[in-house]
Structures are given as structure tokens and as C-alpha cells.
Specification:
Helix 1 packs antiparallel against helix 2. The chain has a domain of about 45 residues. The protein has two helices and no strands. The chain has about 90 residues and is mainly alpha-helical.
């Protein structure tokens, strides 16, 4: 396998992983900041108060974007990985 093909495939794989993980990471960041702000304003320092809503938001966004994630990964494997394995 040529080095250019290897590095290009690696670059595409890393970019796809960034694109796929962005919605979940953005929601986790927004939920964490908003809950932290509420905790700072009300002086409530409970650890489960940050964990449970953030986990719920992440699960909802994961459920909503699961089809997009599956399509993106499947397209990458069908269009890029399988032809490399087959030598095409």
C-alpha cells in the first residue's frame, strides 16, 4: 500500500470521527456549562446534579443522530476501506 493512500485514509477516518462525535460533545459541553452555571448561582454542589442531566442529554442526542452516524461510517467503509482491502 502506498504511503499516500494510507495517510489519506487515516486523515479521512480521523475527520469522520470528528464529524460523528461533534453533536454529542457539543451537547455535553452545553449541558455541563449550563448546569455548572445553575450550581454556581444557587450554591448547590451536588455531583449527581451534573451527571444525570448531562447523561440524559447525551443519550437523547445519540438517539437522534444514530442514523447519521451509521450512514457516515457505513459509507466510509463501503467507499474507502473495502476497496482497499480488495485491492481495487
Amino acid at each position: 500500500m502506498d504511503d499516500l493512500i494510507f495517510y489519506d485514509t487515516l486523515r479521512q477516518a480521523l475527520w469522520i470521527s470528528v464529524v460523528i462525535s461533534t453533536p454529542i460533545l457539543v451537547v455535553a459541553l452545553l449541558a455541563g456549562v449550563s448546569i455548572g452555571l445553575v450550581q454556581a448561582l444557587t450554591s448547590i454542589q451536588e455531583m449527581t446534579l451534573t451527571f444525570v442531566p448531562k447523561l440524559g442529554a447525551i443519550l437523547i442526542v445519540f438517539w437522534m443522530t444514530m442514523g447519521f452516524m451509521t450512514e457516515t461510517l457505513s459509507a466510509f467503509f463501503v467507499d474507502r476501506i473495502i476497496p482497499l482491502i480488495g485491492g481495487l
